[in-house]
Amino acid sequence: MDPDFAALDAYLDEHNLDGYAFADDESNSDLYYTTGFGAPDPFVGVYTPDETAILVSSLEYGRAKKEARADTVKRRSEYEPREKQAEYGEDRVQQKVVSEFLADVGVESVATQHGFPAGLADGLREEGVTVDPESTASGVVTDVRAVKTEEELEYVREAQKANENAMAAAEALIREATVEDGVLQYEGEPLTSERVTEEIEVALIREGCALDETIVACGADAADPHDRGSGPLEAGETIIIDIFPRNKASKYHADMTRTFVKGEATDTQRDWHAVTDEARKAALDAVEAGATGEEVNQAVVDVYQDAGHPTVFTDPDTETGFIHSTGHGVGLDVHEAPSISLNGEELEAGHVITIEPGLYDPAVGGVRIEDIVVVTEDGYENLTDYPIELEVE
Amino acid sequence: MDPDFAALDAYLDEHNLDGYAFADDESNSDLYYTTGFGAPDPFVGVYTPDETAILVSSLEYGRAKKEARADTVKRRSEYEPREKQAEYGEDRVQQKVVSEFLADVGVESVATQHGFPAGLADGLREEGVTVDPESTASGVVTDVRAVKTEEELEYVREAQKANENAMAAAEALIREATVEDGVLQYEGEPLTSERVTEEIEVALIREGCALDETIVACGADAADPHDRGSGPLEAGETIIIDIFPRNKASKYHADMTRTFVKGEATDTQRDWHAVTDEARKAALDAVEAGATGEEVNQAVVDVYQDAGHPTVFTDPDTETGFIHSTGHGVGLDVHEAPSISLNGEELEAGHVITIEPGLYDPAVGGVRIEDIVVVTEDGYENLTDYPIELEVE
Asked: Residue ranges of the Creatinase N-terminal domain (chains A, B) (predicted)?
C-alpha cells in the first residue's frame, strides 16, 4: 500500500515541525496506517517527509523488518536502556531512549496525536525535543486515511461479504423459530438476543472476522440505539441487528444494520420502516464528492421532518424519533472520519461511510437501516448487498 | 466490588495532588477498575480520596448512572460545549469542559497515567490545572488492581474453565486427525493452525468469551514465542497451543499453554517437555506472598541452566533456549502487573500470575507449559485443571 501523505507534509510544514511521532500499540490505527506495523506492546514511530522510522523491542525486531512499511527499524537495545536505567533511573529511561532515536532520524521537533502519552511528551521536552500535540482527537493522519485506496476498498468489501453471511445466519434463526405465547422458540428454548449474537459471531469467525460487540435488540431495547439487547425475542416487535466485524488479517471493518419483525408488523412499524428506507435513499442521493456530511445528514432530517417525526437536529431535547447522526466513516476503525452529521466535512472520492437513519420510541421499539458505501466523484457505490425487508415469516 | 485504594490515596498525598484523572475509553483497564464504567468512546474520570466522578456524553448518561461505581456522574452537555465552541473555538472546548468538571469536584491538581492524552494535559495546564503524569507506563492503579478480590478471582476461574474446554476442543481435533505423508488430516483436508484456532474461538464464543489472538504454532513456528502459527500441522513436531480468552461479561482473562506432539515424540522433545515441566514445578514451589517475581523467575533459570540450556538471563544474546520471562499478572489485561522476571517485584496474596517456562530452537521447535495461579500467604492455588501430556495418539 502506498498512502498519500501530502496533507501530513503540509501540516508539518505549516507548524514548522520536523516529524510526526507516535507511541502506542496496534490498537492505534493512525500509527498502524503510517508505519504499516502493529504490535501488542507499545512501540514508537516517527514520520518525516523523508522517511518513516520505528523503534521496537528485540522480540518484535525480526517481524518489524519483514512487515513494516518503515524505511528504518531500530531496536530498543541499540539505545542501551539497561545502562541508561543505571545512570538516570527508571523514570527517565524511556525519554532518553526515544529522544536519541529521534535525533538519529534527524528530528528535533514533533507533532503528535492529541492522545500521545503525556508522560512521554513531558519527558521528551525535558530532553530538549519540541512536542506539539494536535488540539483535537481527530487528527491529520485520521483525515489522510479516511480516503481509501483500491486495496483498502477490497478489504472493506471482503469484511462486508462476511457481514452479509452473518446477517443471513441471524435472519435464518428468526425465520426458523416458532412462536409460543408471543416469544420466539428455537430448538426447544426461547430464542434470545444472546443466542442470535452467538450465531453471528460463529459465522464471522468462520470467515476470518472478529468482533467485540453486536447489537441484536428487540422491543424496548431496540428503542435505545446503544443497547446491545438481551433476553428472549418477541414476535410482533422490531428486532434491530447491527453487525460491525473486523477482518482479522486486513484489520478493516464493515458495518450494516437491518430491522426485522417476526410475523406480521403493525402499521406503525411498517410506516417507520418505509420512511426510514426513504430517508436512506434520500441520503444516498445526496452523497457525492464535494457534498458535505452535513448536507447528507440534512437529507435524512428533511425526510423525517416532512413525515412528522422529531429529530435531535430540529429539537435537541427530544428523546424519541431520529436521535443520532446519519453515519460515519469506516476503515481500520469502525467509527472514523468523515462525520455524516452536523458540521460534517466535505466528502471526497474514496471515503467509506455508513448511511444509517433510524427511529426510536420505547412505545414502538426501534427501526434502523444501515448501508455502507464508498463515495465516488459523481455519487457512490453501495458496498451492501442485502435485502431490506421488515417481516420475516 | 469494593477495591482498596489506600495505595492510591498515599500516592496522591505523597505528591500533594487533589486527584487522579483519566481520559480514555473502555480499553483502559485502570479507568474501568477505578470507576466501574466503560464506554466505547472516550470519557473522563477523576478519583479523589472523597469521591469518584465521571463525565460522559448524554448517550452514555443513563447507563453510567446505573452501572458506574462513581459517586458523581456528570453529563458533558451540562458544561455547554456548543457555547464554549462558539466562544473559544473547537480547539479549546474540551479543556474548558474538563477543567470546569474538575473544579466542580474540587480538584485543582491531578496525577494521571503516563499515557494520559498529551493534548488534554497541555490544555488543562492552560486552564490553570496542575497535571502530573506518572513517569512509567505501569502506574499506581495498575499495582492496586494486581491484587484481586474474591469476586475477581471467580471471574478468572470462569474464564479459565472456558479456556480448558477450548483447549480440549483443540486437542480433540489433533487426536481425531489422521496422518498422511507426515501431515495431519481432518475431514479430508490438511489440519491447519488456522482450523484449530477457529475451533478454539468457536468453543470460547459458546462460553461467552472473546479473544483477539490465539497461538497454534507447529515446528519452526513454535520456535518463535511470538509467532501465531499458520499452515498444516505436522506429525512428530511440537505444537504449542496458547489460549488467553476474555470473558465478555466480566472482562477478566485467563491464560494457559500446552504443547502436543501428534504420534511419537523424539527423545529431545520428551527431554525438553520434561525439563520444562520441572521448571514449572520449581517456579510454583517458589511462589508465595513475600517472594519476588525475580526469585520465581530465577527458579526456572536454575532448572534450565542445570540441564545445560541457555537462557536470556544468563546469556542476553542467546536466540535459543529459554528466551522470555517466566510469567506475568493476568486480570482485566492479559498482561499486567506483577512481572515474573528480572526486577520482578514482591508478590502479594491475591496476585494472579502465569508460570510459563519454555524452550525454543528452530532445529527442534518449541515447548511451553503455562499454568495460571493465584498467590496465597503460604504458596499458591493453581487455577489450572488440564493434563500435561506431550504425546497425542
From this structure: 7-127
Residue B60 has pLDDT above 90, yes or no: no
Q: Is A278 exposed, middle or buried (0-12, 13-18, 19+ CB in 10 A)?
A: middle
Residue B52's DSSP bridge partners are: B47
Nearest to A101 by CA among A130, A143, A132, A72: A72
Dist. CA B262–CA B289, nearest whole Å: 39
Residue B175 binned pLDDT confidence (cut-offs 50, 70, 90): very high
Which strands make up the sheet holding A238-243, listed edge to edge?
A: A214-218, A238-243, A256-262, A391-392
Q: Nearest residue on chain A to B28, judged by CA atoms?
A: A27
List Cα–Cα distances, B300 to B189, B225, B271, B304, B314, in angstroms.
40, 17, 15, 6, 12
Distant-in-sequence, close-in-space partners of A269: CB < 8 Å, separation ≥ 6: A238, A261, A364, A365, A367, A390
Separation CA A180–CA B244 (nearest Å): 40
Q: Is B45 left (phi over 0), alpha (psi -120 to 50) or beta?
A: beta
Give the type of residue at B56: V
Check whether the bond before B190 is cis (ω within 30° of 0).
no
Summarised one tens digit per residue, pLDDT across range B242-270 is: 999 999 999 999 999 999 999 999 999 99
Show which of residues 284-343 on chain B sit within 8 Å of chain A, judged by CB atoms: 324, 335
Return residues 234-263 of B near A (CB < 8 Å): none
Going along chain A from its start, the domains and CATH numbers come out as 6-144 (3.40.350.10), 147-392 (3.90.230.10)
Q: Which helix (H) or strand (E) holds B391?
A: strand B391-392
CB contact under 8 A, A133 and B115: no
Query: How far apart are the two ends of chain A, measured CA to CA in Å?
Result: 46
Task: Dump pLDDT digits (tens) for A50-78.
Answer: 999 999 998 889 889 999 999 999 999 99
Return the pLDDT at B1.
80
Tell whether B116 lies on the interface with A, counting CB pairs under 8 A: yes
> Could you tell me which of B133, B11, B109 has the C-alpha nearest to residue A117?
B133
**What is the reported pLDDT for A151?**
96
CA dihedral B159, B163, B165, B170 (to 10 degrees): 160
Residue B393: name the closest of B270, B232, B264, B259 by CA.
B264
- Average pLDDT for B113-136: 97
The three cell numbers locating residue A224: 435505545
* Residue A201 near chain B (CB below 8 Å): yes
Tell me which chain B residues have a C-beta less than 8 angstroms from the C-beta of A245: none
Provide the H-helix boundaries in chain A.
6-15, 29-35, 58-67, 81-88, 90-104, 118-126, 140-146, 150-176, 193-205, 267-286, 293-306
Instruction: Report CA-CA distances (Å) from B142 to A24, B5, B245, B248, B295.
Output: 18, 11, 20, 21, 21
Phi and psi, residue B40, nearest 5°: -65, -30
Question: Within 10 A of B236 (CB to CB), how many other CB atoms are there?
Answer: 15
Residue whose grid cell is 481527530: A138
Indicate yes or no: CB of B59 within 8 angstroms of CB of A113.
no
Which residues, 6+ apart, have CB-to-CB distance to A29 below 8 Å?
A142, A145, A251, A331, A332, A333, A336
From the list B117, B47, B119, B44, the residue with the least C-alpha distance to B76 is B44
Tens-place pLDDT, residues B17-51: 999 999 999 999 999 999 999 998 899 999 999 99
pLDDT tens string A316-332: 889 899 999 999 999 99
